[in-house]
Amino acid sequence: xxxxxxxxxxxxxxxxxxxxxxxxxxxxxxxxxxxAGKSAMLDAMTWALFGEARKNDESVINDSTHNRKxxxxxxxxxxxxxxxxxxxxxxxxxxxxxxxxxxxxxxHWRVITERSVSLTNKLICNTLHLDYRxxxxxxxxxxxxxxxxxxxxxxxRKEVLGSILNLDQWNxxxxxxxxxxxxxxxxxxxxxSLLEQIESELSEExxxxxxxxxxxxxxxxxxxxxxxxxxxxxNAKNTEQLIFSQQDLLKKTDSQLQTLSIxxxxxxxxxxxxxxxxxxxxxxLKNEAQIEEKIIQLKQAxxxxxxxxxxQVIFFELERSKNELLSKIxxxxxxxxxxxxxxRQDYELVQKAQQSIAQEQQRESELRKEIxxxxxxxxxxxxxxxxxxxLMEDIQGKKAECLRMKNRMxxxxxxxxxxxxxxxAPCPFCGTDLxxxxxxxxxxxxxxxxxxxxxxxxxxxxxxxxxxQQKQSYENTIAQMTQISQRILTLEKECAPISARIVNDxxxxxxxxxxxxxxxxxxxxxxxKEQFCLEERKLLEEISDxxxxxxxxxxxxERCRNRVGELQSIDTQYKALLKAKAALExxxxxxxxxxxxxxENEQKRRELEAALLDQKESLNKLTALKADSIEAKKxxxxxxxxxxxxxxxxxxxxxxxxxxxxxKQKKAVLQLEKAELNQLIGRLKxxxxxxxxxxxxxxxxxxxxxxxxxxxxxxxxxxTDDKMSIQLNTLRDYKDKTRDIKKETLDIIISDGxxxxxYELYSGGEAFRVNFAIRLALSKLLAKRxxxxxxxxxxDEGFGSQxxxxxxxxxxxxxxxxxxxxxxxxxxxxxxxxDAFPSRIEVEKNVNGSQVKVxx
Length: 856
Prior knowledge:
It is a single chain. This protein is of the alpha/beta class. The protein has a domain at 1-129 and 798-803 and 816-856: P-loop containing nucleotide triphosphate hydrolases (Rossmann fold, 3-Layer(aba) Sandwich). Helix content is 70%, strand content 11%. It is built from 15 helices and 15 strands. The protein has helices spanning 38-50, 117-128, 132-138, 154-164, 168-202, 205-284, 288-377, 381-421, 436-529, 534-550, 554-625, 629-691, 696-720, 764-784, 804-817; strands at 2-9, 18-21, 27-31, 69-78, 81-90, 96-103, 108-111, 140-141, 725-733, 742-751, 756-757, 792-796, 823-828, 839-846, 849-855. A hairpin with a 5-residue loop joins strand 5 and strand 6. It is flat, with a radius of gyration of 77 Å.
């Protein structure tokens, strides 16, 4: 991880917005007085990254911030990607965090925040592959926590190393392996349970086969019983069927006998009717000659009547055509008469129009002459109007001149009065004192001017009077001309409808002369000479000739109709005669047939009565032999049910025996699966142990410890001139000496050339050098971690515990390792160390909170 920038607002001592750009910094010291806000800057980083700092509650909010909100925006580069974290905490509310990544293709920030703060914090830790504890143990040497790693117990040290070496993945592997082993173990338990059930069923093989044999024998016996009882039931059913058949035959014979009796009675009645009809027909044949003579007369009358009917049809058709032609002729005559009447009315209108035209033309001529005369009288109106306008202008000018003269005369009169009263006073004209002579002189001048103006005024007034008279004359003339113009308009209005009436009357006369006159003469000629409907008149004459030739007589037709009516009754008698002659011979044959059939049916009746007696005797014999079929059916059903029950039981037994073969096959498959599961579970247990903290992770720590130890000793020897070194041991003896095995641990053994001592027995400066060496070695390891390098180092204080030589050694060590890190930040309040670093971040605190200045 490489920090790029941080923006702090309202966080701890940072009241206002402060932004720090780290892009141009490689190694820098952060300087400032105690309490200026140096450590708060680092707290802002850890708070932004993990939501943790030296204070994690609302106390991180600066009390002087008006909006009562702390906000830190931290931008950093990690494994060639750029990230931004914005963490906020408002007073009285929970903190919020937003996680973003720079999208180079889209050229903007893309939000990757999870749905909750805790999940977002977890995503940040997973992205960095380390948590807050590892971060402050390795990369951050926080103030007062230089011995953070050294004072932890061995287990906690291992956890820190595990985080540095990214050993958490082995814990994930172990959890997945445990889950898979449990799943396979559960399956093994199921397989064992199934095998136990199969073994239990296979142990019943002999018992199941014995039961199958017993059921087979019982079923054979049941089948025999069922067949016997079925035969008995069938015999009882057959006897019942014979009885039913005999009863049906008896009913049928009895029914035939009754039907035959009914038929014989009907034949006897019918024979009596036919004998009566035969007697009546014989009676009708006695008047045969008289009836045939009258029939001949009837046919002659009918022939004549048919002839009259044909003539009547033709006569009516000719009369209809005749009436239609007459109707057409009458209609045409009425139409022509109406048109003649209309034309006569038009002619009368034309005569009136001709008279009106002469009168209207005379009146129009009179009006036109009057209009022309009046127009001549108004020709000078424009000249008189122009003259009046000029006269008015002249009058106005002269009136203005009269008014001016009158005002001047009034003014002269006032001046004369003033002069008379002003004797001895200064002259208003020359300024000298006025005397009587001087006053008279001016009065005489004013008198002359007044007389001259008066004469001119009176002359002009006289001229104005003449002009007023001339003006009145002009105005009177114009008024008369206006009246004349109004008269002209009135005459033109009167003339317009006269002209329209003349045009209309002329149109009527012209239309009559062109069309109406000729049509009127034509219609008069047609009507007087009957020269219309000539074709219809010709057809009418032809139809009249046909009617005469037809010679239809309605009276003769009526007499013939009456004669036919009188003879019509004989037709009925003749038809009855013909019917009697036609029916008499078949009637004789029918009487003979009926007599023969009655005799035959009498013989059949006697035979049916004898058969009926025989059938009753047979039915009585069958009834005596009848068995109880219902009881036989019950016994058959019981036997059949027993057979079915045994057959079902035998089928189940057969399936039970057959299932054993399937179970044997399933047993073999399950035993094979059991062996495979046992083998797999054994392997998974080995993997569980390998993935546990005492397995591969322990080996990886064992492999990493020499590197850490060598790196720490190299730094420590440089800091102490080869006087101190450390050793990292992973095994030690138990307090119980009887135990052969050793206890796993992670102990730090410190040597100073005089032997080994406990960490607590070293001075502050010596302890800091040990802590510094170990922590720096861990940071270097973390900076080289593949796929998740943390390429920054922060050292907060520690120089105060060193003498000048120790401080120099620390600076040399930092300079020596600077190529292993992209960013190294060292916090100090010692002024003599400011120039020891190429870049400097100065922190000051004033009334606006902590302020930062970067010096590169």
